[in-house]
Amino acid sequence: QMVDLRNVSTVTEFILLGFEQSYPSTRTLLFTLFLALYGLAMAMNGLIIFITWTDPRLNSPMYFFLGHLSFLDICFITTTIPQMLLHLVVKNHTVSFVSCLIQMYLVFGVGVAECILLAFMAYDRYVAICQPLSYAQIMSRQVCVRLVGTSWFFGMINGIFLEYMSFRNPFCRGNHVENFFCEAPIVIALSCGDRLFSLKVIFADTIVVLLSPMVLIVTSYARILTSILGRASSSGRGKTFSTCASHLTVVVFLYTSAMFSYMNPRSTHGPDKDKPFSLLYTIIAPMCNPIIYSLRNKEMKGAMLRALGRDSLAQAESV
C-alpha cells in the first residue's frame, strides 16, 4: 500500500506500553520481583567476573570465556531492565527516538556477541576433551583474546546493520510499542513503506546469527559425546557430562527465546506472547547463566566461597 510520505509526521519519541495496563498491585509485585531478579543477576555475574579475573586457580580458557559471558550478561540485562523498573513506578513511559535507537543497537550487538561467544565456548570444550595434549597450544591466551574480540566485533557490526533495517523507513502508524523495551519487530510494524522487506532481512540475519553458531555447538558436542563414550571412565564421563550440560542449558535458554522472538511470523505474535519470551532472554537467561555454571562446577563453587572469605568451606567443597 502506497503512503504519501509528505503527510507522515516525524516521530520524536516512543511510548513503551509494557505493563501499563496492569493493576497497581500487579505492577508493585512485578517491580519487586524484577528488582530482586536484576539484583541477583548483577551480583552473581559480578562475582563470576571478579573470581575469574582474580583467582589464579581459574586461569583456564573456559573460565576466561565464562568471565566475558558474565560481562555480556551484565551489559545485556542493563540495557532493558532498569528502564522497565522505572516505568513500573512512574506514569511517563515515553523514551526518545535516540534512546530507543541506542537501546535496540545494544540489544542486537550484545545479543549477537553472546551467541558467537557461546559457540566459541563449545569449541573450547571440544578441544579440551578431544585434543587434551594440544589444548594449551590451540587455546592459548592470545587465541582466546582474539575469539572474544571476534564475538564483540561481529556483534557490533551486525548491530549497525540490523539497526539500519529497523529504522530505514519513516514511521506512520503511531508510536506505541507493545513491549517494555524497543524490540525490533514491534518497532518495524509502526513504520510505513516496505516493512515486510525489513522483517525478511532480519529473519534471514537471525537464521545466520543463531543457526551458524548452533551448527558449531552441535558439531562440537557430537564429537565430544563420541569421544567420551569411546574412551572415558564412568567417573570421567560424569564430570564431562556435568560441564557440558551446564553450557547446553545456557544455550537452550538463550536460543529458544531468541528464535521465538525473531524467527516466527509476526502474525503469530501479540503482547501476551511477546512479553514472556522477551523476559526470558532479557532477564531470566542472564540470571540463570551464573547459577547454572556455579552450581554444576566444584571449582566455581570453591572459588566463590574463597572470594566470600570462607576458606574452610571452600576446602571442604573441593574434597
From TrEMBL:
<feature type="domain" description="G-protein coupled receptors family 1 profile">
    <location>
        <begin position="44"/>
        <end position="293"/>
    </location>
</feature>
<comment type="function">
    <text>Possible taste receptor.</text>
</comment>
<feature type="transmembrane region" description="Helical">
    <location>
        <begin position="276"/>
        <end position="295"/>
    </location>
</feature>
<keyword id="KW-1133">Transmembrane helix</keyword>
<feature type="transmembrane region" description="Helical">
    <location>
        <begin position="29"/>
        <end position="51"/>
    </location>
</feature>
<feature type="transmembrane region" description="Helical">
    <location>
        <begin position="201"/>
        <end position="224"/>
    </location>
</feature>
<feature type="transmembrane region" description="Helical">
    <location>
        <begin position="245"/>
        <end position="264"/>
    </location>
</feature>
<keyword id="KW-0552">Olfaction</keyword>
<feature type="transmembrane region" description="Helical">
    <location>
        <begin position="102"/>
        <end position="123"/>
    </location>
</feature>
<dbReference type="InterPro" id="IPR017452">
    <property type="entry name" value="GPCR_Rhodpsn_7TM"/>
</dbReference>
<dbReference type="GO" id="GO:0004984">
    <property type="term" value="F:olfactory receptor activity"/>
</dbReference>
<feature type="transmembrane region" description="Helical">
    <location>
        <begin position="63"/>
        <end position="90"/>
    </location>
</feature>
<keyword id="KW-0716">Sensory transduction</keyword>
<keyword id="KW-0472">Membrane</keyword>
<comment type="similarity">
    <text>Belongs to the G-protein coupled receptor 1 family.</text>
</comment>
<protein>
    <recommendedName>
        <fullName>Olfactory receptor</fullName>
    </recommendedName>
</protein>
<dbReference type="GO" id="GO:0005886">
    <property type="term" value="C:plasma membrane"/>
</dbReference>
<keyword id="KW-0812">Transmembrane</keyword>
<keyword id="KW-0675">Receptor</keyword>
<keyword id="KW-0297">G-protein coupled receptor</keyword>
<dbReference type="InterPro" id="IPR000725">
    <property type="entry name" value="Olfact_rcpt"/>
</dbReference>
<dbReference type="GO" id="GO:0004930">
    <property type="term" value="F:G protein-coupled receptor activity"/>
</dbReference>
<dbReference type="Pfam" id="PF13853">
    <property type="entry name" value="7tm_4"/>
</dbReference>
<dbReference type="InterPro" id="IPR000276">
    <property type="entry name" value="GPCR_Rhodpsn"/>
</dbReference>
<feature type="transmembrane region" description="Helical">
    <location>
        <begin position="143"/>
        <end position="161"/>
    </location>
</feature>
<keyword id="KW-1003">Cell membrane</keyword>
<keyword id="KW-0807">Transducer</keyword>
